[in-house]
Amino acid sequence: MKGRQILVVDDEPKMRRVLEIMLQKMGHRVLAAGNGVEALALFQANSVDLVITDLRMPEMDGIELLAALRAQASDVPVIVITAHGTIETAVAAMKHGACDYILRPFDIDVVELAVERVLNGAAVAQQNAFLRQEIERGWDAFVGTSEPMRAVYELIQRVGPSKASVLITGETGTGKELAARALHHASPRRDKLFVPINCAAIPADILESELFGYEKGAFTGAVKERVGKFELADGGTIFLDELTEMPLPLQAKLLRVLQENTIERLGGNRVIELDLRVIAATNRDPLESVREGTLREDLYYRVNVFSIELPPLRARVEDIAGLVEHFIVKHGHSTAATRLTPRALERLRDYDWPGNVRELENMVERALILSGGGTLDEQHFLLNPRAADNKPKPATASAESQKAPPPLNQAVEDLEARLIDEALAQAEGNKAKAAALLDISERTLWYKLKKYRPDQS
Ligand SMILES: Nc1ncnc2c1ncn2[C@@H]1O[C@H](COP(=O)(O)OP(=O)(O)OP(=O)(O)O)[C@@H](O)[C@H]1O
Ligand SMILES: [Mg+2]
Fold first, then answer.
1. Across 247-255, average pLDDT
2. Ligand 1 and 176: CB distance under 6 A
3. Is the pTM for the entire model greater than 0.85?
4. 156 alpha carbon, closest ligand
5. Which ligand is nearest to the CA of 176?
6. What ligand has the least distance to the C-alpha of 241?
7. 196 alpha carbon – ligand 2 mean position (Å)
8. Do residues 215 and 222 touch, judged by C-beta distance below 8 A?
9. What's CA 38's distance to the chain center, in Å?
10. Which atom of ligand 1 is nearest to the CA of 180?
């Protein structure tokens, strides 16, 4: 990505010059300002793709400049430069909407990487992805006025303002993340960050450094220090999604964080005090997970100060019509032109909804395409006939196994468990060998065995 216009702000002429040369070498055009006021004037008079600013400057500092840019409703990406030992200010700047930081002294590789990442949007996928997501996603409100949902809203309003930990349970797609955000928004922390982290989506060995951050040199590849999610959530809310997927040793560390309100970055020995509100979620039965040994009992009690259970969609079919309307509008159609026939509604009410609201949204999106945006009738909904031909049935294990296909993570887990069995058989029960066959660490195998085959671990 070349040929962009970058505004460099630094009160030291030498630093400005160095950056200017580096950026020009990368093929960009550079505007240079010696202070925030000058920078704002240049910004208003030119089209600027990226701002790189020093944080410590006399008169208007980097954070004030950021605030002034944001006040003009500008979402120009901003990278801040900060000296070693003042990383806290970089964190503060990120909380004000900077998308990355560069530690001084820097060399051209570091600048190049940061600039490239920001300009092609990859920075979003990095450390502070949530910042952008939060802004872009806004906050989606709950739809549905059924009795069970009203009980949920009431609980959210009651528990939201406190600092108490909350454990949210419910089947997949029932709105657990939505509830977590609603709790954050109902709290005095709403102006601070809501930092989600999905314990199931991040490899076990990376999860710890994602949460705790690390100091430079903490491990191979830790070329500079990184702030973890806990620190970023300071003053706000950290959302630990799929808590039961967190490795047990890390659960023990998490428990300590909750008890002591402090963390230490990996490879560091400085104790950092934090003010965190923790919300966790799982689509498993948490007590079952405690019995299976995948969720520490003490952690369960610590997080489960309050619990909110989201009802499955099949238990509140009266919400379906309203949800369908909501998704019709969400996907760019009008409810005046696009109506749901009574017959279609009846079919939707009879369906099982193993994927709950998420499944309904996907179904509506598909139906809108199939109907060309006109009336939504029965044939536009591709309901699984086996699940739909009976009236709703209790969610027993046998009813569960009748509906195809199983949720993706269930299918993946079944496959994983089978591969582990095969590897163990091939290795004649030797776990080290089995782990090698599967190309995973022994530790990972141990976790997985504990999860799938507790009798063998
Ligand atoms: N009551 C609701 N009203 C409107 N939209 C909803 C509602 N419940 C869920 N959704 C939407 O359905 C989708 C799934 O919700 P969410 O991600 O919160 O589910 P989840 O319980 O976290 O699922 P999973 O366990 O699979 O992570 C989201 O797009 C969310 O906005
Ligand atoms: Mg979720």
1. 95
2. yes
3. no
4. 1
5. 1
6. 2
7. 10
8. yes
9. 37
10. 18
Q: Residue 1: pLDDT band by 50, 70, 90 thresholds?
A: low
Residue 133 has pLDDT above 80, yes or no: no
User: Residue 234, Cα to own-chain centre: how many angstroms?
Assistant: 16
Is residue 280 within 8 Å of residue 240, measured between CB atoms? yes
Pocket-testing residue among 137, 153, 174, ligand 1, by greatest number of atoms within 8 A of Cβ: 174
- Give the right CATH number for 408-452 from 1.10.10, 1.10.260, 3.30.310, 1.10.1740: 1.10.10
Q: Which CATH architecture has domain 147-309?
A: 3-Layer(aba) Sandwich (3.40)
Return the domain boundaries, the chain. Answer: 5-128, 147-309, 314-402, 408-452
**Is residue 220 scored above 90 in pLDDT?**
no
Radius of gyration in angstroms for the set of CA atoms belonging to the chain, rounded to a whole number: 26
Architecture (CATH level 2) of domain 5-128: 3-Layer(aba) Sandwich (3.40)
140 Cα to the center of ligand 1, angstroms = 10
Ligand nearest to the CA of 410: 1
Question: Residue 444: CB within 6 Å of ligand 1?
Answer: no
- In this structure, the number of other CB atoms found within 10 A of the CB of residue 133 comes to 13
Instruction: Return the pLDDT at 384.
Output: 67
Residue 391 has pLDDT above 70, yes or no: no
User: Does residue 140's CB lie within 6 angstroms of at least one atom of ligand 1?
Assistant: yes
pLDDT of 307 reads 95
Tell me the range of 42-46, 98-102, 115-119, 431-435 where mean pLDDT is highest: 42-46
> 314-402 adopts what CATH topology?
Helicase, Ruva Protein; domain 3 (1.10.8)
346-371 tens-digit pLDDT: 999 999 999 999 999 999 998 998 88
Q: What is the mean pLDDT of residues 53-73?
A: 84
Instruction: Please give the Cα distance from 212 to 135 (Å, whole number).
Output: 24
Ligand 1 mutation pick, 146, 178, 327, 360, max ligand atoms within 8 A of CB: 178
Q: Is the shortest distance between the CB of 331 and ligand 1 below 6 Å? A: no
Beta strands per DSSP E along 248-389: 262-263, 272-273, 277-282, 306-309
Pocket of ligand 1 contains residue 205 by CB under 6 Å: no
Q: Which atom of ligand 1 is nearest to the CA of 326?
A: 4
For position 268, what pLDDT does the model report?
A: 86
Domains 314-402 and 408-452 alike in fold: no
- Sign, CA dihedral 390-394-398-403, equals positive
